[in-house]
Amino acid sequence: MSVTSGARINTNIGALNALNALNNVNRQLGVHQLRLATGKRINFGADDPSGYVISKKMEGSIRAMESALTNIGDAQSVYGVAEGGYQTIADILVQIKEKQTRAVNGAMGNDEKDAIASEIQQLMHEIDDIQSQTKFNGQTLLSGYSATFQVGEDSGAIFTVAFSADVTALGLLGTAAGSVAAGNIAGLTVDNALKTVNTEIGKIGAAVNRLAVKEENLTTAITNTEAAKSRILDADIAKEQISSIKLQILQQTATAQLAQANMSPQVFLSLF
Hints:
This protein has 6 helices and 4 strands, in the order αααββββααα. It has helices at about 15-40, 50-105, 110-135, 170-175, 190-235, 235-265; strands at about 135, 140, 145-150, 160. It has a two-stranded antiparallel sheet with strand order 1-2. A two-stranded antiparallel sheet has the order 3-4.
């Protein structure tokens, strides 16, 4: 810093030094006030270049994990819709089993058996309707649905949701819905059908449990990454407030010193 005796009034070095100090204080004060206003320690790349890059990378990771969390929710919804369809089919199969057992009764005549066959036939038509109408976002689920969901930050973290079992009336019971008659009620493969559907429900349960674990892990990872980003990016409000008050005091003293430095040359008027 240049120092002058003050006798040379054409250039007031003292005032220039005070002005430079005041400008520096104002610049620092502006930085701290911006941090207090935004809550961020890093508002521009120049504030902390490496910290800015790292925080943006973390932000990208957080966004990706949040999207993956949404994907997990969608996969769980698909499973929920499919499971509802399977459970309804299982309930219908239980009714068919009941009627099949009832039909094997020597006390019944042909009319009664024909009536039971008609009931079973309607229930089997309902199975076909459920198989074709169980949908998610317009996609039929219970007829060979298969889709992949990204369930993690990395593109390789995928989870496949698929339903391959044939749950039509023909596929489950060995007889098409329109072909049921009193003579073939006993041949309906109801037990195998129930086993098939219940196996699919069990698979869904296991898959949903896996997704729940992934959901919990992702939620924890998001929280931890947010905390790490906060340590780099966010401002310490208490610290910034202390610095701001200190700089405000320096601003006032620098302004006073600038005013005093501007008045200093006037002392030499007494020489004239």
